[in-house]
Structure formats: C-alpha cells, structure tokens
TrEMBL record:
Protein's name in the database: AB hydrolase-1 domain-containing protein
Family matches, as Pfam families: Abhydrolase_1
PANTHER family per record: PROTEIN ABHD11 (PTHR46118:SF4)
Keyword list, A-Z: Hydrolase
Family: Belongs to the AB hydrolase superfamily.
N-terminal signal peptide: none
Originating organism: Rhodosorus marinus
GO molecular function annotations of the record: carboxylic ester hydrolase activity
Length: 317
C-alpha cells in the first residue's frame, strides 16, 4: 500500500491512518515542527528492558513545568524519561496551525527522530488529549497510556480560567515593563486574581526577541496562535466507529477537578476498553502539584504492573 508522505515524511514505523491523513490534507497541513526535549536517564538500573516514558505537558506549560515531578526519585525510577515542548510552547518553534491532530503529528515525528519504536505515554491536560489521539491513531507506537485529568471529549466551558488566562496574557503590553513583578501586576489588572495561576503564567516569561529600550520582555508561548486555536484545543477529534486503543490505559483525575465527572468513565471505556479510572483525593486539575506523592504512586503502580506482565509473557517464548 502506498504510504502518504508529508513535508518531513510519514512515520518510518507505520503509515498515517486514513482519517489522520484526510484531516491533515484538508486543513492545509504545513508539516511537523521539530520539538525541543529533555532526556532523563533511569534513576536505578532496570532489572529488564523497559520502554521509555514520554511525558507531554498541558496548555501554556512546557516540559520544564513538570521537571520537579519527573525528577522525583520515586517517579518511574527504572525508566528513561523524555519530556517535550509542544509547538508554540517552551523552546519549540512557533507555527500558526494548532489543533490536536497536528500536535500529535509533531510528537510522532519526534518519536521517529529519536528512533523510539514504542513508548509508555503520559499526558496531562492538553497533553492528555494529544496522547489519546496518538494512541488511537498509532497504537503500535504506544505500549501503555496514562492520562492525567483529561477525558476524551470537549472541555469547552469546563475550565473557565483557561480562556481568561489566554486573554489576559494576550492583552499584556510589554512596552515599559521591566521585570516579572510588573508583568504580574498587569496580569492581575487583566483579571487573573488567583496568585497561583499568575505564577504559573509567568513561567512563560522570556526576554524580548528584539531587545528595545521600551520592550525587554515577551512571552515564550505563541499566544496569538494559542488564542486563535483555543476552540480547537478544547475540542476532541472524531474517530471512525469502532476505533479503540486495546492496550492498558490509566486515567487519573483530581477529585476536585472540574473535569472529574461520572460521565467520563462511559466515554473513556468506549475508546479505551482496557482503561482503569482512578481519582486522587484532595487534588484539583494540577494533581501532580496538589498531590505529587499519591499521583506518583498510582502512575508507578500501573507502569510497574504492565512491566511485570511484559516480563512474564516474554518468558513464555
């Protein structure tokens, strides 16, 4: 069967699915961008070969946002871990086009570039959507899936602070602002009353690309593209009837998160029939910050169980 080639070539380990291909063709696909990443070696010598972990961040975050969590001594200690910056985030290139399937295509290109044939995939928030799409479209590349506080569906209206945060960042005029404190005051005037949210948004602060006398600061994220794409980022792609990811999957929600609802499990099991759904008590959307120890425990337990099963099945020849 003839493979569909993109600007940077189709996945070397598998062709693009028909829906994925039609979506990219019909929406003026511009080609993947080369994602920046960080690599963390395993903290202990593994007893047997384990698939590496790829951690995908949420909206307005970056791989660096999760650095303290990923570097915990008790977080998947026997696994190699990669973190990436999605397009328009962190140190990765900017591009106008930004929807879930396009983000997933960037991640697939990253896997090919690193020659990672199969990985254990973890995604938080927006990264969870990207992870789900990648697993559904290319299940042979994802050994097991962990999704942190994100259901497979639209999230429009469920996280009101997302739109207000994007708008507040977009409305920042950096002319005359000298430091982080100045920018934080502007964000507060722009309606961001929650100090924790302001401090999170400020992790995107960087020096201006053109350091002029009156503009010394800028956003690392491509806030224009993110604002233009917010509806697409809060949606979830359609899949052909019967499409499933028939491998182990773990969905972890914070009990205080607005995304933790009873309706989630039905939607999850329709696409991910082997999924386990867990709630972390007293945690909100940022469960890896609110309850890092418990979140780490449930992720470790899931991945360790799958690794043990792989070892047992491998011994049967």
């Amino acid at each position: 069967m003839k493979r569909f080639l993109l600007a940077r070539g189709a996945s070397r380990y598998g062709g693009w699915s028909n829906i994925f291909k039609r979506h990219l063709q019909s929406n003026g696909f511009e080609g993947q961008v080369q994602l920046k990443h960080n690599f963390f070696a395993s903290k202990v010598a593994p007893k047997h070969k384990q698939s590496p972990v790829l951690f995908i961040h949420g909206l307005l975050a970056s791989g660096r946002t999760y650095r303290s969590f990923v570097k915990r001594k008790d977080f998947v200690p026997d696994r190699e871990v990669y973190t990436i910056d999605l397009r328009n985030h962190g140190d990765s290139p900017h591009a106008q086009r930004m929807d879930i399937r396009t983000l997933a295509s960037d991640v697939l290109a990253f896997l090919d570039g690193q020659e990672l044939k199969q990985i254990s995939l973890i995604g938080h928030s927006l990264g969870g959507k990207v992870a789900m799409v990648l697993a559904l479209e290319f299940p042979e590349r994802v050994k097991e899936l962990v999704v942190l506080d994100m259901p497979p569906g639209k999230t429009t209206g469920k996280m009101r602070n997302v739109n207000s945060a994007i708008q507040a960042m977009y409305n920042v005029d950096f002319h005359g602002l000298g430091d982080q404190r100045d920018v934080e005051q502007v964000l507060q005037r722009n309606g961001i009353e929650d100090r924790r949210l302001r401090r999170f948004l400020l992790t995107n602060l960087a020096g201006a690309k053109d350091d002029t006398d009156d503009q010394k600061l800028s956003w690392k994220v491509n806030i224009q593209s993110i604002q233009d794409s917010v509806d697409q980022l809060q949606s979830f792609p359609e899949f052909r009837t019967g499409t499933t990811y028939n491998k182990p999957a773990l969905f972890v929600f914070g009990s205080k998160s607005p995304l933790s609802t009873a309706k989630n499990e039905e939607r999850i099991r329709r696409l991910f029939p082997q999924a386990t759904v867990i709630e972390v008590a007293e945690a909100g959307h940022w469960l890896q910050d609110d309850e890092p120890k418990r979140t780490c425990e449930v992720v470790n337990s899931f991945l360790s169980e799958q690794g043990q099963q792989q070892q047992c099945s491998g011994g049967d020849g």
